[in-house]
Structures are given as structure tokens and as C-alpha cells.
Amino acid sequence: MINQMQERYARHFNLKEIGLEGQEKLRQAKVLVIGAGGLGSPVLYYLAAAGVGTIGIADHDKVSISNLNRQILHTSADIGRKKVESGAEKLLSLNPEISIIMHDMKVTPENIAALLAGYNIVVDATDNFTSRFLISDYCFRLEIPLIEAGVQGFEGIILTIIPGETPCYRCLYPNPPEDRKAFEGLGIVGATAGIFGSLQALEVIKRITGAGKTIAGILVFDGLDGSFRNVKWSQRKDCPLCGQNPTNL
Ligand SMILES: [Zn+2]
User: 61-65, 133-137, 178-182: lowest mean pLDDT where?
Assistant: First the structure.
């Protein structure tokens, strides 16, 4: 078993940032990925491949053919299946040494605290503002690091929110825009989701192993000209969540 494990993760062991110690931290980590779609697919694949020991997948949706230009966790044969089941099958086939917990549910204010309980890090891979605000508010209150990203067309953004270390999501957007199911139905190139899901997975792996630093500020990518830029992000004194006079959201 040790030999097999050593072979599977051999390319981690000669990285000074991971090594045997980091691999053990990955094995002990419990990471929740909310959304098994365009962002969730690469996040989940890379976390499973890296040997994250317990991975939760939360999604209430079923696979449809229009998902397949970007949701590479699912195949044409999975159309009509629950995404959590299709996803769990692929991840365990890639790495049978890990545990997958399926949460076949839509995240709501009533169930989110119970869903997040016990996870060390949360990855938001949802596609609407209602879920984003709900997830980011609760991660902040429960002091769980959150890796947030959003993609559309050829563009995307990513930010890592560490309660007590970074500003919160409401420092960026104090209140949810009217939920027009923000990204639903908008165009997206699958590769753009691939880039941001991969960046989210890398942030998780760094956080668990202690490698490097989290992304500073907000990393913004414009795929049409291939440019990345960092946008400064600071705490708002009047932030309704982490400011001096928080409102009871
Ligand atoms: Zn804030």
C-alpha cells in the first residue's frame, strides 16, 4: 500500500512544498466542492488526483447535453444521471484511495450550516449569486476558507477568502445583485472554466500543504488577449458582514 501510494504521488514527493508531509496533510483534508459543473469538474478531478482524502460534492442537478461543452466530469452516457453520482464514479475511478461524500441537494439557508460542518475548505463552483452570497456568508461566519471563482465567455475571476486574514465577499459586493440566475444561459468556453477550476484546485492544495501564498487580491483573466491582472481588494469599513457595524444579514 505504501509503495502504491508512493508511486501514485511520486511527482509530489520531490516537491519541497509538498513531500511526504504535505501528502499526508492532503490525505487528512476534507474539502467540499459546491457545484459539479464547469468549474467543479476540473476542481474535483485535480483534488482527487492530488489525493485529497475526503471530497464532498454538493449538487442537485442532472447532467444535460448542453453541459458537456465544459463539464468534463460527465460524458454523453451520463445524460439524465445525477451529477453527484456521475461525478463520484469518475473520481473514484481516477483515485480509489479517497472517499467521496455525495450531497444531492440544493444549498439553502436552512441546510447550509449542516452541509459545511466538518469541512476544512470550501470551493464555490456554483453559477448564481444567490448561492454565492449564501456560501460566502456562512463560510465567513463558520471561519472556513473559501475559494471563490466566476467565469463567463472568455473571462474569469478568482479570489481566496480567509476569515480573519482577507476581506470578505461582501467587501467586494455588499449586496447581491438581483438574482437573474446570473450566469445561466450566458455563453462560456469550456476551457475558461477549466483554467479557473484548475486555479481553484491549486489554491486548495496550497492552503492544505502550506505551499506559497494565497492569491493576493482578485485575479482577473481576459482570455481574448491572454492577460491576467490583479485587482486590489480591501476591507470596507461599512461592510455588512465584516465591517464595524455588521447588519444582521
Ligand atoms: Zn466584508
Answer: 178-182
